[in-house]
């Protein structure tokens, strides 16, 4: 359960043609802050590697969503593509800067990284050394986050955060003192990009501070996730680079301001509706690797494509149908080559999983499997999401 929502911070209601023009014209500007995302290898060829992938899919790829808890500046940040399952990018915290590899997650709102005082030791994770930062300030507040894939307990701190060449001062963030479920995961922490009402640190989230402190000029960020190359994925802040998509952006209004959730019309195969018959809600979520939905509907999809325990033979891959998501009247097909991950020389893993815990209303999570095909724009100024065919 999420805590009671607080009031949203708002920007001026400048929802004019100015920004619509900016979306079309701000393309190769040096003001765009692009943060690269990089693919990290999750081994999956040998039998032992296949087991590792299965465990990763069960534990992490389920998703990062929380289940309970007590001038014209455009920034583009590179991300790392972890074998098409996790996209991570580098940030720094403190003075002098200490580097961390984080998941940029639209399903949560807080930044957290492990502390040097964390009792859960991870040999591969960077740890924040607070005594080495001259800008570090402690608070008396504690923090507890419970994800489907793990949990963390820690404290809230304040320090300087850098994303690319953009600097955010006095940023509240979490320092994990104890955590579980993140062992062996190829990232140190999480950087949330959801609305401030979902923050558990009690402060202003990173994206809001980027705008409030003048590091970006427009309250917009966007993701381009590479389909296969380890490099080339980016998250951009403050605007949109049109070179990452083709055609036009199709705008979808949020169901309500406060989270990245939209109305979905239906899901179909060969023009036959197989889910979301009467419409449903869908979270567009970069913190989710797969497509998540109600168990009975996931089972039906697996049955229709002939999967056994989420697997099909690689030999039938080219015969499998596309699964079409219709959102705001626009069809977004997902071909088999996108939703089936080659697991070994003879098998493919179908990346549709049951949403846990289940919800009373039909709810879907469109994760990276979907977002690799469709460039996504998250427009806080107009409470909407834009989707277009990725290049």
TrEMBL record:
InterPro entries attached to this UniProt entry: Aspartic_peptidase_A1, Aspartic_peptidase_AS, PEPTIDASE_A1, Peptidase_aspartic_dom_sf
Record-level GO BP terms: proteolysis
Sorted UniProt keywords: Aspartyl protease, Disulfide bond, Hydrolase, Protease
One annotated GO molecular function: aspartic-type endopeptidase activity
Chief location bin: secreted
Active site: 105, 285
Paired cysteines (S-S): 276-280
GO cellular component, one term: extracellular region
Location(s) in or outside the cell: Secreted, Extracellular space
SUPFAM superfamilies reported in the protein's UniProt record: Acid proteases (SSF50630)
Superkingdom of origin organism: Eukaryota
Family from the record: Belongs to the peptidase A1 family.
Protein name: Peptidase A1 domain-containing protein
Species in which this protein is naturally found: Muntiacus muntjak
